[in-house]
Amino acid sequence: MSVAERRGRAGREPSKIPYYVVLSALAFFALAPLLVLVFNSLKSNAEVGRNPLGPPTSPVFENFPTAWAQGNFATTLVNSTILTLGTVVGVCVIAGMAAYAMARLDLPGTDGVLLYLFVASALPFQLFLVPLFFLWNTLTLTNTLFGLVVIYWAIFSPFATLLLRSYLVALPRGFEDAARIDGASEWQVFTRVVLPLSWPGFLTIALVSALGAWNEFFFAVTFIQDDALKPVSTSFLAFQSQFSQDWGLTSAASILIMLPVVVLFLLLQRRFIDGLTAGGLKG
C-alpha cells in the first residue's frame, strides 16, 4: 500500500470526538453528585439550604468529628464489618458448592433449581418481611448479628449462585478430568482444581455481596433494635429529628460510610483484573 493510499484511508476514518463527548458527559453525571456530596459535607445546615450545589464559602470541617460521634460510627462500623465478613464467607461457601454441583455434577432437577433461583432473584425480599419476622422472633434470632447474616445469605446467595455457575460452565473440564484420572475425589477436584481457576468469579460475588451487606438498611433497621448492634447504614437516623434533617452532617456521614468501600475496591481492583487475565492452573 502506497503512502497516498494510507493517507487517504486515514483521512476517511471517523472522528473520535463524539465518543469523547459522550464519555465526558457520562463521567460528569457520575462524578457531579459525588462532588456535590463533598461540598455539602463541608457546609452548615443553613448554608446547604442557601447553596445546595455550589462549593462551601466557609468550610465546616467539624462536621466529620461531629457526625462520627453523633452517628456512633465507632460501634456501627465494627458491626457492619462483622456483618459484611459473615455475609461474604457464607455466600461464597453456599454459592460455590451450589454452582459447582449444578455446573459439573449433572444432577437431576438442575433446570428446576435454576428456575427457582431466577425467581428468587427477581422477587423483592420485602414481601417475606412479616412471616420472616415472626419466624426469627420464635427462633430468638431477632436483635442478633447472626440472625441478620443468615437473612443476607438468603438474599444474596441466589444471584451469586447464578453468576458463579455461569463462570464455572465456561471453564474447560480438562484439568478436572485429569485430576479424576489421577484418583482425586470430587472434593479435591473442587478445592484444588476448580477454586484456583475460578477465584475471579468468587471475588466478584464476594464484592457484590459485601457491597450489598454494607449498604443494606431495610432488614437491618427492622431486625436490630439494640443500639450496640446496629450497622453503619442506620447511622443516618441520628441526623434527623421529627421535622428536620441536618444535611451537612448527613453528607459527612455519607463520606465516612463510602470511604471504606472505595478503599476496598481500589485495593482489590488490580488483583481482580489480574485474576481475569491469568490463565492456567496455579500452584
From TrEMBL:
Belongs to the binding-protein-dependent transport system permease family. CDD domains: TM_PBP2. It is a multi-pass membrane protein. Pfam families: BPD_transp_1 (PF00528). Residues 77-268 form the ABC transmembrane type-1 domain. It is found in: Cell membrane. GO terms for biological process: transmembrane transport. The chain crosses the membrane at residues 20-42, 82-101, 113-134, 146-168, 189-214, 247-268. It comes from Rubrobacter marinus. GO terms for cellular component: plasma membrane. Keywords: Cell membrane, Membrane, Transmembrane, Transmembrane helix, Transport. Gene3D superfamilies: MetI-like (1.10.3720.10). Its main location: membrane. This is ABC transporter permease subunit. InterPro entries: MetI-like (IPR000515), MetI-like_sf (IPR035906).
